[in-house]
Amino acid sequence: MGNECCYGLCPWGNRGFHPLPEVKNSDDRSEVKNSDDRSMVTPTSKLEKRLKKLSDGDIPIVLLTTGSLSPIHKGHVKNMELAKKRLESVRGRKIKVLCGYISPSHDSWLRGKQYGFFPVANRIAMVKLATENSDWIHCDSYEGTVEKVMDFPEVINRLRGFLKQYQNDTHRDIDVYYICGADHAEKCRLWGRPNYVVIGRANTWVPENRKCLYIENNEKNISSTEIRNAIIQGKLREVRDLLHPKVFDYLDATKPALWT
Description:
The chain contains eight helices and six strands, in the order H-E-H-E-H-E-H-H-E-H-E-E-H-H. The chain is α/β, with parallel strands linked by helices.
């Protein structure tokens, strides 16, 4: 028996689709009073271990990337690793990356995605699986689970506020560097902003007067859309190499529904 419908999203018609419940506008949502109200969803164990290893003159920073991550694939983690390596090799500055956070976006941002999307609970579970063996990358569940729908600048500012507790303890400023693709940088005009790391390809147009850090990733371009397309066709095993082994096992075993 074919399994093209076992993920809840069929390649033909609307049979098997799981519609996302109606979501109110952000203006109608209750505000989160304090940035630490949901701090339990922002893990810090890896950050704290690396914080203890800082030396005099080190410049501690934290990396952040957001996105649908539906599902997370090897390219997402690779971009974080490329950014860390590049930042820590900047001449004249002893930059030390304490931690990297991968933040799955709220379900509301993912409406209309081609081939649907995985609900945030599944996306968080897969990010945790993909990063659990890393000694510096965490999954930050805050953005995806907080009631208020947040845009990426709000996610950055919330994390900066959250990190102030460690600045008070260490008397060092811990800044946040945001990692994104070149298409995102172009759309949101991020080329002229510091504290951004933009990942591009060989054919990416890069302005000469940029203030962000630019990195060219020449490895295979991986797309979550491609993976979802394979899933709804019952061809998950054909994209196995694009996924962390534990993420593949999760998808293969649980077959989470794709929502529209």
